[in-house]
Design brief:
Oligomer: single chain
Shape: globular
Main location: cytoplasm
Strand content: 5-15%
Subcellular location: Cytoplasm
Site (Plays an important role in substrate specificity): 225
Strand order of the largest sheet: 4-10-9-8-7-5-6
Pfam family, one: SHMT
Radius of gyration: 22 Å
Largest sheet: 7 strands, mixed
Protein name: Serine hydroxymethyltransferase
Structural class: alpha/beta
Number of helices: 17
Bound molecules: pyridoxal-5'-phosphate
Number of strands: 15
Distance between the termini: 21 Å
Length: 419
């Protein structure tokens, strides 16, 4: 019954250090967020002890009466939140949700059509080394070189030519809305399933601030930890009764064993929060923050340094910074922001001349800072700090001033106070 600090001081110290890092820096990795304390309490509970293979009311283990309540609440809340008929809340992650959804719809060797990883797609949408690239025959669509928007003419052309069994619409690094109705039309034209992976923008969809894929897609997958702001995990949704059972079988026993009921409880907490006015306000500040950031990075002083913003702006929670014409590469830019206390990730941009480990882009998101309470005023300050860091001659003094400004913001918006 020893506490962590006493039994395992090394792990305890590293967790404390990570808490301090999160509190003292500004988190702008677009796929990250801060889970509510209530969700972490659920996740750190005795539910971690429970085996519950199967689904509520149909388990392969005894003693599931309480976890049944929890999983049913999670299902009811997430279907209500997104206006979907069926949900599976068991996927351990977004990748497992996608693996399960594809396993339900496809046979190995079938053709899938997804957005190229280098153009903003996700590993699970057909990358060569991923399960998706190994199990399925992958055809990739792209963004146009002229405006960096998804080329729906190419999607249609590739669909007609390759007759995929599944089209995947979704992204990890793309700052605009996708045209779900156009994807649906193309899927129908060639008799393909349409799967939308809304992992990144699910929080925006939940609050009506992004077009919903639910009416258009056969299957919708998401993570629960990005804009949705919950624990790390995945969910699958569908309106198709004929697919619901197949999807359940694909998750368990297809891809997973026992569900993580402690995580499912935390997901349920996050879905409850996502239905509130407070959460909608947060998503609005997220969007406003991304627009402010894009606007600042499109100003003359930044453009003069060869730095710009892909697609000329954003409609979502992230901005993709294009460094192809800058002396600064993605690695250097990431390091420079890290030095002033802002955490982002470098990202390949479409048609990137630099190798992926260096890259010519940054992906910068505003969801985590909005959770921290940032509004327009603070996002203007952060945007100006980022612009300053990217265009500054790398003098110690200049970066030191910017770090002081970051410290002031971090202090004014305490994260997990009292922890
Ligand atoms: N789908 C998309 C679009 C993503 O961006 C990600 C995460 O980066 C995933 C799926 C995978 O989620 P996870 O990391 O939970 O497996």
């Amino acid at each position: 019954d020893q506490r962590l600090a006493d039994f395992d001081p090394e792990i305890h110290a590293a967790i404390r250090a990570e808490l301090r890092r999160q509190q003292q820096t500004l988190e702008m990795i677009a796929s990250e967020n801060f889970a509510p304390v209530a969700a972490m309490e659920a996740q750190g509970s005795v539910l971690t002890n429970k085996y519950a293979e199967g689904y509520p009311g149909r388990r392969y283990y005894g003693g599931c009466e309480h976890v049944d309540v929890i999983e049913r609440l999670a299902i009811d809340r997430v279907t209500e939140l997104f206006g979907a008929e069926f949900a599976n809340v068991q996927p351990h992650s977004g990748a497992q949700a996608n693996a399960s959804a594809m396993a339900a719809l496809l046979d190995p060797g079938d053709t899938i059509l997804g957005l190229d990883l280098a153009h903003g797609g996700h590993l699970t949408h057909g990358m060569r080394l991923n399960f998706s690239g190994r199990l399925y025959d992958v055809v990739a669509y792209h963004v146009r070189e002229t405006d960096h928007r998804v080329d729906m003419d190419e999607v249609e052309r590739l669909a007609v030519e390759h007759r995929p069994r599944l089209i995947v619409a979704g992204w990890s690094a793309y700052p605009q809305h996708l045209d779900f109705a156009a994807f649906r039309r193309i899927a129908d034209l060639v008799g393909a399933y349409l799967m939308v992976d809304m992992a990144h923008f699910a929080g925006l969809v939940a609050t009506g601030l992004h077009p919903s894929p639910i009416p258009h897609a056969d299957v919708i997958t998401t993570t629960t930890h990005k804009t949705l702001g919950g624990p790390r995990g995945g969910v699958i949704l569908t309106n198709r009764a004929d697919l619901a059972k197949k999807l359940n079988s694909a998750v368990f026993p297809g891809q997973q064993g026992g569900p993580l009921e402690h995580v499912i409880a935390a997901k349920a907490v996050a879905f409850k929060l996502a239905a509130t006015e407070e959460f909608r306000d947060r998503q609005q500040r997220t969007l406003a923050g991304a627009r402010i950031l894009a606007g600042r990075l499109l100003a003359d002083d930044v453009q003069a340094a060869g730095i710009t913003v892909l697609t000329g702006g954003t409609q979502v929670h992230l901005v993709v910074v294009d460094l192809r014409r800058s002396d600064l590469d993605g690695q250097q830019a990431e390091d420079r922001l890290d030095a002033v206390g802002i955490t982002v990730n470098r990202n390949a941009v479409p048609f990137d001349p630099r190798p992926p480990m260096v890259s010519s882009g940054l992906r910068i998101g505003t969801a985590a800072l909005a959770t921290r309470g940032f509004g327009a005023e603070q996002f203007r300050e952060v945007a100006d700090i980022i612009a300053g860091a990217l265009i500054a001659a790398p003098s110690e003094n200049r970066l030191g001033d910017l770090r002081d400004r970051v410290d002031r913001l971090a202090l004014r918006f305490p994260l997990y106070p009292g922890m």
